[in-house]
Design goal:
Blueprint (H helix, E strand, L loop, with lengths): L3 E5 L4 E6 L10 H14 L7 E6 L4 E3 L4 H4 L4 H19 L4 E6 L2 E3 L1 H8 L2 E4 L4 E3 L13 H9 L1 H10 L3 E2 H6 L5 E2 L3 H12 L4 H17 L3 H10 L4 H11 L10
Parallel strand pairs: 2-3, 3-5, 4-6, 5-7, 6-8, 7-10
Antiparallel strand pairs: 1-2, 8-9
The structure holds acetoacetyl-coenzyme A.
Keywords: Lyase
Catalytic activity: a short-chain (3S)-3-hydroxyacyl-CoA = a short-chain (2E)-enoyl-CoA + H2O
Pfam families: ECH_1
Length: 255
Amino acid sequence: MDNLIYEKISNHVGVLKINRPKYLNSLNIKTLNEINMFLDEIKKDNDLYVLIITGEGDKAFVAGADIKEMKDMNSIEAMEFSKFGNKVFKKIENLEKVVIGAVNGYCLGGGMELALSCDIRIGSNNSKFGQPEVSLGIIPGFGATQRLLNVIGIGKAKELIFIGDMIDSKEALNIGLLNKIVDNPVEEAINISNKIIQKGPIAIKQAKKSVNFSYNKNLALDYEVECFANCFNTEDQKEGMEAFTQKRKAEFENR
Ligand code: CAA
């Protein structure tokens, strides 16, 4: 695995790092593939009760899906990409282990969607959150149009998705996106894990299944995939992503 680092820090707790710090751990297809394969492997580790997910380096958890890779996608490719991302994040959400997101630095777009698939989210004072997709002429494609409103409510979810601005960790805590802010999110995630692993392991698995049961039924992820794909092959998407690679602000025309 080139883009992942995994360390089992005790019998029952493992830490997965998304490892593309040069590109702020953005999720390209290769990384998503690796996460997918990794999840299939750790599913078999019956001793593992808690998985902590974090980003390598101190700058980012994950700064979104890889824009440079998405830039030239057509709507069919975008649909496949979104379907695949959703499949992987659904595996995280329904993994029979507790998943804690230790959010260090930027947590944007697909990164926020990764965090939303975790059961618990711990941030630090330098974490920044946002769904900036509309600045790129697209919408979130890995579940945020569905999961975000369940976590923070429809009004705040629409604000983040329609405006695309970043919020800091204090606001993220206030709106319920974060469970806690600490100096060292991985350290705190380990503390929480050490509490969880002392509880009845079957009870924890049953609790997760039960909490997720009706929640999962209300996630219209297929519809999001369709709306995400509709944004591709448009001038807005081309301009939005071209502007990102040229490090300038996108200029969208009236439509
Ligand atoms: N995709 C591809 N490359 C990315 C990236 C991303 N999401 N985020 C950062 N990078 C790359 C940058 O292009 C840059 O690479 P180069 O050195 O080759 O230019 C490198 O990572 C470092 O980033 P910056 O120089 O931009 O760092 P900064 O400190 O100036 O800015 C930032 C940090 C504000 C997070 C900025 O990088 C940024 O805005 N990133 C994009 C965030 C974003 O829009 N995310 C949503 C993606 S769309 C999505 O996720 C769709 C979905 O739901 C599936």
